[in-house]
Amino acid sequence: MNGFVEALADGAVVAKRNLIKVKRVPDLIVFATLSPIMFVLLFAYVFGSAIEIPGMNYREFLMAGIFAQTVVFGATITGTGLAEDMQKGIIDRFRSLPMARSAVLIGRTTSDLLNNVIVIVVMSVTGLIVGWRIHSSFLEALAGFGVMLLFAYAISWGMAVVGLAVRSPEVVNNASFIVIFPLTFIANTFVGTTNLPGPLKAFAEWNPISAVTQAARELFGNTNPQFPAPDVWPLQHPVLASVLWSLVILAVFIPLAIRQYRKAVSR
Fold first, then answer.
1. Could you give the dihedral angle defined by the CA atoms of residues 22, 24, 25 and 29, in that order, rounded to the nearest 10 degrees?
2. Bridge partners (DSSP) listed for residue 56
3. What are phi and psi of 56, to 5 degrees?
4. Which of 2, 37, 159, 216 could make a disulfide contact with 144, Cβ separation 3.0–4.6 Å?
């Protein structure tokens, strides 16, 4: 128990270090927020005029998908940051300090989670400007954001494994883009899955990002009976499915990330 508390305390110190870095290099957070703003405006005003969602405003349908895509892409910063620290020898300095080995990973994933919170706030303001509205209660809305952040936190641990394995920020960026880009688009993020061809439709319906997106839509009150969710378990019970996906990813990748970290620092 004492070891766990010490790891959390050391992780908080590492998280503070990462957040101070963002403060000193504001370009990091500026460009992290400009990208989702661009996506909101692009899809709302360009594609929104060509895409129809029965019974509801496309901009309200869109925002949950934009949120889900953005927090998942934001989670890739974990891998990039760890690879950069490995490349610059920062991890070796941490190894020489009397701190828990898992603290570097806890601090990195926590600071990136907080960065995602900032991005979500900026996106929410942008969404409200273009016409998005929340039609549920305050607590339900908070739960919607919480589901997305939990999933993003789980993805961060997966990206940590990649970042520690390849040790090059450029490779992490390319590898994460190749995997995450199709995952966020072959889903219900920007369009419904009904008209997708057979294999893509099945993939989209069981894609965890689809569950997270649908959970956010329901918790934000951005759904309509005229456009029901497909009759598959993850989209009929999206909140539960999203939480389960997150817990499974955490259960798999936290031990893998810690093992990969020990392997990396022993080289």
1. 40
2. 53
3. -155, 160
4. 216
